[in-house]
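Annual report, structural modelling task.

Input specification for the magnesium ion complex:
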Amino acid sequence: MQPSRKIIHCDCDCFYASIEVRDNPHLLGKPIAVGGSPNHRGVVATCNYEAREFGIHSAMASATARKRCPDLIIIRPDMEKYHEASAQIHEVFRRYTKLIEPLSLDEAYLDVSDSKHFEGSATRIAEAIRAEVKENVNITISAGIAPNKFLAKIASDWNKPDGVFVVTPDRVDAFVEALPVKKLHGVGNVTASKMKRLGINTCGDLRKLDETQLTKYFGSFGKRLNNLSRGIDNRPVKTDRIRKSVSIENTYSSDLPNLKRCLEELPYLEIQLAKRLNKLKGRYKIRKQFIKIKFHDFVQTTVEMVSSQTVTDNYSELCSKGFSRGNKPVRLLGLGVKVFPLNEEQFVGNTSNVTETISRSSAHSIENRDELTDQNQATISKKNIDNGDADQLKLILD
Ligand SMILES: [Mg+2]
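The model returned the following structure:
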């Protein structure tokens, strides 16, 4: 038998609203919602617990929310601020495991089965993460700990807000047996009322039906229901997402003074990019090449061209073009490709642009560069959202 996995589901409590209250203490204790204007068909993205008491919830029209609670304070979302907090939170996660599956800005699955921290105690890791997020970001995050993703997600919600709940392997059976079917992902109002008509209220009730019967009543969902009702969920924590771009960038410890020096750096970056692309072999097709330049005064520019492969001369051309826009010393140079997946079905989950950032002295040898790359973390690049990528925006709004 395989050893039991240790999965933590971390989820901040009313994330956007918490950030706003954090930054505006006079909002403390008042009903607030983050979202669009009630006068312009806006919707609520998140609201705090004070607002929830009025029956307000996310995705509700702001106008309806205001009607339910005339004192509701509606704040426009400040995505840049939320991304900054999200990056800090993910930094905390990464201290404990590399196996992280982000679900949204404030929510992720962590597989800590092999983590050496706290003698491998997932509960203590979760508590440490919660304490560090409180300390560093000054908002609360709830955590659920269980042997799989399905149960970890339910567990993180169990003692919300600012709560933690553990489903140990020996308690899985009893926990799931009593679990109301409404708690199962995929069981919405329609399915729940159908189940109710069939006399099914808990997972224990579901277990009385075999897979054939479940498939008869619930179609293709039947098989999954059969597993869930027994607490079985073998889905791995997936760190792989649909990539929209792959790039490498480097911030130089001393600025590159001129175009010649920039051009000289390109081959090193290209080597790194080639390595990254190698890992994705056969799964993506290149559609564009691009160069990113940040000048010493932090003014940034990106130049791109349509291309189906990485052509060295193209990068030189893009670099010259980008440099001429500022004609001043460069602190950061990046190059990459925009890609699309060859087979979208193989991916489940979020889309992202992945940028690897390397920091090193410009005097390092190639060998050193390689070493540095291996230590790098792939990060969801906030800048790509600012570039107006529709899918990426969807990710935020989700
Ligand atoms: Mg949340």
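The chain has three domains: 1-166, 172-228, 242-397.
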